[in-house]
Amino acid sequence: MKISQLRTLLAIRDNGSLSRAAQVVHLSHSALSTQMTQLEQDLGSALFVKGRRPVMLTAFGLRFCVEAEDVLGRFDALRQSAGGDRTDGTIRAGFVPTTQQTLLPVVLRGLGATFPKLRVQVTSGLSGDLAEQVARGHLDLAVMTAGDRIGPEMEQTEIAREPLCVVAPPDTAGDAESWLGTLPYIAFARDTRLGQQIETGLSALKLRPETVMEIDSLDTIEALVREGLGCSILPQRLFAPPLQDRLTCLPFPQDGAARRLALLRRRDFNRPTVWAELRRLLA
Protein backbone atom coordinates (compact mmCIF):
# COMPACT_ATOMS: atom_id res chain seq x y z
CA MET A 1 0.00 0.00 0.00
CA LYS A 2 1.34 3.44 -0.99
CA ILE A 3 0.57 6.98 0.07
CA SER A 4 -0.02 7.89 -3.59
CA GLN A 5 -2.72 5.19 -3.81
CA LEU A 6 -4.53 6.65 -0.80
CA ARG A 7 -4.43 10.15 -2.34
CA THR A 8 -5.85 8.77 -5.58
CA LEU A 9 -8.62 6.92 -3.76
CA LEU A 10 -9.69 10.07 -1.90
CA ALA A 11 -9.58 12.08 -5.13
CA ILE A 12 -12.01 9.58 -6.68
CA ARG A 13 -14.31 9.80 -3.67
CA ASP A 14 -14.22 13.61 -3.59
CA ASN A 15 -14.74 14.08 -7.33
CA GLY A 16 -17.08 11.19 -8.08
CA SER A 17 -15.36 10.57 -11.40
CA LEU A 18 -12.27 8.67 -12.50
CA SER A 19 -11.48 11.19 -15.23
CA ARG A 20 -11.77 14.20 -12.89
CA ALA A 21 -9.74 12.43 -10.19
CA ALA A 22 -7.05 11.64 -12.77
CA GLN A 23 -6.74 15.37 -13.50
CA VAL A 24 -6.50 16.21 -9.79
CA VAL A 25 -3.70 13.70 -9.07
CA HIS A 26 -2.04 14.24 -12.48
CA LEU A 27 -2.31 10.64 -13.71
CA SER A 28 -3.58 9.13 -16.93
CA HIS A 29 -6.90 7.29 -16.70
CA SER A 30 -5.14 3.94 -17.20
CA ALA A 31 -2.49 4.67 -14.54
CA LEU A 32 -5.22 5.62 -12.06
CA SER A 33 -7.14 2.41 -12.77
CA THR A 34 -3.96 0.38 -12.31
CA GLN A 35 -3.30 2.03 -8.95
CA MET A 36 -6.77 1.18 -7.69
CA THR A 37 -6.60 -2.41 -8.94
CA GLN A 38 -3.31 -2.89 -7.11
CA LEU A 39 -4.73 -1.34 -3.94
CA GLU A 40 -7.77 -3.65 -4.01
CA GLN A 41 -5.45 -6.64 -4.48
CA ASP A 42 -3.29 -5.56 -1.53
CA LEU A 43 -6.37 -5.12 0.66
CA GLY A 44 -8.10 -8.27 -0.52
CA SER A 45 -11.43 -6.42 -0.68
CA ALA A 46 -13.33 -4.47 -3.32
CA LEU A 47 -13.30 -0.69 -2.94
CA PHE A 48 -15.68 0.00 -5.84
CA VAL A 49 -19.03 -1.43 -6.89
CA LYS A 50 -18.29 -3.24 -10.13
CA GLY A 51 -19.99 -1.99 -13.28
CA ARG A 52 -21.41 1.19 -11.72
CA ARG A 53 -21.16 4.44 -13.67
CA PRO A 54 -20.56 6.94 -12.24
CA VAL A 55 -18.09 5.25 -9.92
CA MET A 56 -19.47 4.16 -6.53
CA LEU A 57 -17.57 3.04 -3.45
CA THR A 58 -18.54 -0.11 -1.60
CA ALA A 59 -19.41 0.06 2.10
CA PHE A 60 -15.88 -1.14 2.84
CA GLY A 61 -14.49 1.48 0.44
CA LEU A 62 -16.31 4.28 2.28
CA ARG A 63 -15.00 3.09 5.66
CA PHE A 64 -11.50 2.69 4.26
CA CYS A 65 -11.57 6.27 2.90
CA VAL A 66 -12.23 7.62 6.39
CA GLU A 67 -9.21 5.77 7.73
CA ALA A 68 -7.10 6.77 4.71
CA GLU A 69 -7.95 10.43 5.27
CA ASP A 70 -6.72 10.20 8.87
CA VAL A 71 -3.51 8.45 7.77
CA LEU A 72 -2.81 11.09 5.10
CA GLY A 73 -3.43 13.93 7.53
CA ARG A 74 -0.93 12.45 9.97
CA PHE A 75 1.57 11.71 7.19
CA ASP A 76 1.41 15.26 5.80
CA ALA A 77 1.78 16.78 9.27
CA LEU A 78 4.80 14.56 9.94
CA ARG A 79 6.36 15.47 6.60
CA GLN A 80 5.85 19.17 7.24
CA SER A 81 7.36 19.02 10.74
CA ALA A 82 10.32 16.99 9.49
CA GLY A 83 10.92 19.20 6.47
CA GLY A 84 11.48 22.43 8.36
CA ASP A 85 11.64 25.72 6.47
CA ARG A 86 12.63 24.22 3.11
CA THR A 87 12.91 26.24 -0.10
CA ASP A 88 13.40 23.23 -2.38
CA GLY A 89 11.30 20.22 -3.33
CA THR A 90 7.68 20.59 -4.42
CA ILE A 91 4.72 22.63 -3.26
CA ARG A 92 1.21 21.99 -4.57
CA ALA A 93 -0.66 25.20 -5.38
CA GLY A 94 -4.18 25.80 -6.67
CA PHE A 95 -5.22 28.82 -8.74
CA VAL A 96 -8.70 29.83 -9.80
CA PRO A 97 -8.88 30.11 -13.61
CA THR A 98 -9.44 33.90 -13.47
CA THR A 99 -5.92 34.36 -12.02
CA GLN A 100 -4.02 32.14 -14.42
CA GLN A 101 -3.19 34.83 -16.98
CA THR A 102 -2.40 37.47 -14.37
CA LEU A 103 -1.19 36.16 -11.00
CA LEU A 104 0.11 32.71 -11.96
CA PRO A 105 2.98 34.00 -14.18
CA VAL A 106 4.02 36.45 -11.46
CA VAL A 107 4.13 33.68 -8.85
CA LEU A 108 6.00 31.17 -11.02
CA ARG A 109 8.54 33.74 -12.23
CA GLY A 110 9.11 35.18 -8.77
CA LEU A 111 9.42 31.90 -6.91
CA GLY A 112 11.63 30.45 -9.66
CA ALA A 113 14.01 33.40 -9.46
CA THR A 114 14.21 33.37 -5.65
CA PHE A 115 14.12 29.59 -5.06
CA PRO A 116 15.61 27.87 -8.15
CA LYS A 117 15.32 24.40 -6.56
CA LEU A 118 11.62 24.79 -5.73
CA ARG A 119 9.03 23.16 -8.00
CA VAL A 120 5.45 24.43 -8.06
CA GLN A 121 2.82 21.86 -9.04
CA VAL A 122 -0.23 23.82 -10.24
CA THR A 123 -3.89 22.75 -10.09
CA SER A 124 -6.85 24.71 -11.47
CA GLY A 125 -10.30 24.79 -9.91
CA LEU A 126 -13.14 26.85 -8.48
CA SER A 127 -12.52 28.56 -5.14
CA GLY A 128 -14.70 26.19 -3.12
CA ASP A 129 -13.07 23.12 -4.65
CA LEU A 130 -9.57 24.49 -4.05
CA ALA A 131 -10.38 25.32 -0.43
CA GLU A 132 -11.60 21.77 0.12
CA GLN A 133 -8.42 20.34 -1.43
CA VAL A 134 -6.29 22.52 0.86
CA ALA A 135 -8.35 21.41 3.87
CA ARG A 136 -7.88 17.75 2.94
CA GLY A 137 -4.13 18.16 2.41
CA HIS A 138 -4.27 17.54 -1.35
CA LEU A 139 -2.93 21.08 -1.91
CA ASP A 140 -0.48 23.09 0.19
CA LEU A 141 -2.02 26.45 -0.67
CA ALA A 142 -4.43 28.18 -3.05
CA VAL A 143 -4.90 31.57 -4.69
CA MET A 144 -8.65 32.09 -4.84
CA THR A 145 -11.64 34.30 -4.16
CA ALA A 146 -11.81 34.77 -0.39
CA GLY A 147 -14.41 32.81 1.54
CA ASP A 148 -16.33 33.83 4.64
CA ARG A 149 -16.22 30.41 6.33
CA ILE A 150 -12.73 29.08 6.95
CA GLY A 151 -12.03 26.09 9.19
CA PRO A 152 -9.85 26.51 12.28
CA GLU A 153 -7.06 24.48 10.65
CA MET A 154 -6.82 27.01 7.80
CA GLU A 155 -5.31 30.47 7.41
CA GLN A 156 -6.64 32.93 4.83
CA THR A 157 -4.64 36.05 3.92
CA GLU A 158 -6.30 38.70 1.77
CA ILE A 159 -3.93 39.85 -0.97
CA ALA A 160 -6.06 42.23 -3.04
CA ARG A 161 -9.45 43.81 -3.59
CA GLU A 162 -10.32 43.96 -7.26
CA PRO A 163 -12.99 46.65 -7.84
CA LEU A 164 -16.08 45.51 -9.74
CA CYS A 165 -16.79 47.46 -12.93
CA VAL A 166 -19.71 47.61 -15.32
CA VAL A 167 -18.29 47.35 -18.84
CA ALA A 168 -19.86 48.13 -22.21
CA PRO A 169 -18.61 48.25 -25.82
CA PRO A 170 -16.18 51.08 -26.68
CA ASP A 171 -17.77 54.55 -26.99
CA THR A 172 -21.06 53.49 -25.35
CA ALA A 173 -22.95 56.49 -23.93
CA GLY A 174 -24.97 56.54 -20.72
CA ASP A 175 -24.41 55.33 -17.18
CA ALA A 176 -23.93 51.90 -15.64
CA GLU A 177 -27.54 51.40 -14.58
CA SER A 178 -28.87 52.35 -18.02
CA TRP A 179 -26.51 49.82 -19.65
CA LEU A 180 -27.72 47.07 -17.31
CA GLY A 181 -31.32 48.03 -18.04
CA THR A 182 -31.13 48.21 -21.84
CA LEU A 183 -28.15 46.21 -23.17
CA PRO A 184 -27.95 42.41 -23.40
CA TYR A 185 -26.17 41.15 -20.28
CA ILE A 186 -23.29 38.65 -20.35
CA ALA A 187 -23.10 37.08 -16.89
CA PHE A 188 -20.05 35.55 -15.25
CA ALA A 189 -20.67 31.94 -14.17
CA ARG A 190 -23.11 31.91 -11.27
CA ASP A 191 -21.68 28.71 -9.75
CA THR A 192 -18.52 30.63 -8.73
CA ARG A 193 -17.99 32.83 -5.70
CA LEU A 194 -17.48 35.87 -7.94
CA GLY A 195 -20.63 35.10 -9.94
CA GLN A 196 -22.66 34.75 -6.75
CA GLN A 197 -21.25 38.03 -5.41
CA ILE A 198 -22.25 39.85 -8.60
CA GLU A 199 -25.77 38.39 -8.50
CA THR A 200 -26.14 39.42 -4.86
CA GLY A 201 -25.03 42.97 -5.72
CA LEU A 202 -27.51 43.23 -8.60
CA SER A 203 -30.34 42.01 -6.37
CA ALA A 204 -29.43 44.54 -3.67
CA LEU A 205 -29.67 47.32 -6.26
CA LYS A 206 -32.91 45.84 -7.66
CA LEU A 207 -31.30 45.55 -11.10
CA ARG A 208 -32.47 42.72 -13.35
CA PRO A 209 -30.48 42.79 -16.61
CA GLU A 210 -31.59 40.54 -19.45
CA THR A 211 -29.04 37.71 -19.45
CA VAL A 212 -28.24 36.42 -22.93
CA MET A 213 -25.10 34.43 -22.06
CA GLU A 214 -23.37 32.96 -18.99
CA ILE A 215 -19.62 32.50 -19.43
CA ASP A 216 -16.95 31.13 -17.06
CA SER A 217 -14.02 33.08 -18.57
CA LEU A 218 -13.38 36.77 -17.83
CA ASP A 219 -11.22 37.08 -20.95
CA THR A 220 -13.99 35.66 -23.15
CA ILE A 221 -16.51 38.08 -21.63
CA GLU A 222 -14.15 41.00 -22.32
CA ALA A 223 -13.83 39.90 -25.95
CA LEU A 224 -17.62 39.56 -26.38
CA VAL A 225 -18.27 42.99 -24.88
CA ARG A 226 -15.56 44.53 -27.04
CA GLU A 227 -17.30 43.09 -30.10
CA GLY A 228 -20.52 44.89 -29.15
CA LEU A 229 -22.49 41.84 -27.99
CA GLY A 230 -23.59 43.27 -24.65
CA CYS A 231 -22.49 44.60 -21.27
CA SER A 232 -21.15 42.80 -18.21
CA ILE A 233 -19.73 43.18 -14.70
CA LEU A 234 -16.06 42.34 -14.27
CA PRO A 235 -13.35 42.83 -11.64
CA GLN A 236 -10.33 44.98 -12.46
CA ARG A 237 -7.89 42.13 -11.96
CA LEU A 238 -4.61 42.45 -10.12
CA PHE A 239 -1.69 42.79 -12.61
CA ALA A 240 -4.09 43.01 -15.60
CA PRO A 241 -4.19 46.04 -17.96
CA PRO A 242 -6.93 48.59 -17.08
CA LEU A 243 -10.35 47.64 -18.41
CA GLN A 244 -10.92 51.21 -19.61
CA ASP A 245 -8.09 50.78 -22.12
CA ARG A 246 -10.29 48.36 -24.08
CA LEU A 247 -13.88 48.98 -23.00
CA THR A 248 -16.19 51.68 -21.72
CA CYS A 249 -15.91 51.14 -17.98
CA LEU A 250 -17.74 52.57 -14.94
CA PRO A 251 -17.69 51.53 -11.27
CA PHE A 252 -20.34 49.05 -10.17
CA PRO A 253 -22.99 51.25 -8.48
CA GLN A 254 -22.57 49.69 -5.03
CA ASP A 255 -20.17 51.16 -2.48
CA GLY A 256 -16.97 49.16 -2.08
CA ALA A 257 -17.98 46.37 -4.47
CA ALA A 258 -14.85 44.31 -5.10
CA ARG A 259 -13.68 40.74 -5.46
CA ARG A 260 -11.48 39.78 -2.51
CA LEU A 261 -8.51 37.67 -3.52
CA ALA A 262 -6.82 35.55 -0.89
CA LEU A 263 -4.00 33.12 -0.23
CA LEU A 264 -5.21 30.05 1.65
CA ARG A 265 -3.06 27.51 3.46
CA ARG A 266 -3.30 24.95 6.21
CA ARG A 267 -1.76 26.21 9.42
CA ASP A 268 0.65 23.25 9.42
CA PHE A 269 2.17 24.35 6.08
CA ASN A 270 5.70 24.63 7.49
CA ARG A 271 7.45 26.77 4.87
CA PRO A 272 7.45 30.31 6.29
CA THR A 273 10.13 31.59 3.89
CA VAL A 274 8.21 30.45 0.80
CA TRP A 275 4.95 31.74 2.30
CA ALA A 276 6.48 35.15 3.02
CA GLU A 277 7.82 35.40 -0.54
CA LEU A 278 4.41 34.51 -1.96
CA ARG A 279 2.80 37.27 0.07
CA ARG A 280 5.46 39.73 -1.07
CA LEU A 281 4.99 38.83 -4.74
CA LEU A 282 1.22 39.33 -4.53
CA ALA A 283 1.24 42.40 -2.29
From TrEMBL:
Residues 1-58 form the HTH lysR-type domain. It holds the Pfam family HTH_1. The keyword Zinc-finger does not apply. It comes from the Bacteria. Transmembrane segments: none annotated. Gene3D superfamilies: Periplasmic binding protein-like II, Winged helix-like DNA-binding domain superfamily/Winged helix DNA-binding domain. Keywords: DNA-binding, Transcription, Transcription regulation. Belongs to the LysR transcriptional regulatory family. This is LysR family transcriptional regulator.
